[in-house]
Amino acid sequence: MAIIDHNSRGRLTRDLSISFLIYSLPVVAIFLYFKLTNGVVAESHLTLPSFLEFTKPAFENIRTWGLTAFMLILGTIEFIAGLYDDEWTGEERKVDIVCFLAPKLLLPPVIAFFSLTALPYLIPNLANSLSWVPFWGGFFLIAIADDLTQYWYHRLHHQVPFLWRFHRTHHSAPYMGMAMASRQNFIYTVFFSQIYLTATLTYLGLGLPALFVLVIKSFITLGAHSSIKWDKPFYKYRILHPIAWVLERLISTPATHHAHHADTSGDGVGHFKGNFGNMFFIWDVIFGTALITRKYPKSYGMKSYKQEEWYAQFLWPIFKSKKEGSALAEGVLAVPVRAKAETVLASAPIYQEEPVQV
Prior knowledge:
The chain is mainly α. It has one domain (43-327). It has twelve helices and two strands, in the order ααααααααααααββ. It has a two-stranded antiparallel sheet with strand order 1-2. α4 (135-159) packs across α7 (193-225). 35% of the residues are buried.
């Protein structure tokens, strides 16, 4: 385990302090809203603002089946356009298909147990206790709480050697696109901290805002993983440059997120040591982990990738890889390489791994 020096601890303390401040912003805004309105509840989040009411059925359908259909349609377009360069073969196909289908079957019971059994037991008297919060307040509360928490979850899985191997499956794909968007170790997925945070807020009465956040976030993150570079026109045409400047700092785009999946950082484009944001890229801007180049990496994945078996990538450490030298093999440690102090975040280790036999 790498030793964290004084500067690293100071940087981490500063970032966590800023995070707590950001978490508090929606709460402060809601408090001020009621202070200015003398405590009068003008509207509950249980009913949408009138100008959004017509969107509710669409968001409900998108959540139940629309996102899956969107992924399949976009993935088909990517394949027809030849955007995978014939790399979606053999073990890659198995890993992507299993990682796409299995969580949809295995994760719902886990979340249902947490929402319907664990929460009523742990906080039995707080169900719907936040139902008085206006829709806009609930929306921003969940959007910030969910995505900032995921930023930290993601960032720690790159910087803590033990945690990295639960996330490396997502970075092992030598391509970007819908095929690999759900490619994750199941243990990484089932312990998604923001899932349980959002489930708790939903139990407390913020279900409708949670629905809207989920759908919007899903489209942004899927778009950022897509091999279709939809953000290119914003960089190409000068008239769109002001929009591009705001867009690429606010949300994840193909250019910024593809850089995160690059197999090198030595070309000035790849940035696997940062660009951790999922829905909001502004977290990277705030914490100094952002790199914006408006360019796309030439290659993706990990140079040390051994094309491990689907079961090892999906369920390590329950199942180990039989590939010699693999970081997922029995008795092998994946030791992150330290980057130079001036380029690595808070002198923390990054994920370019060196398998070490023990």
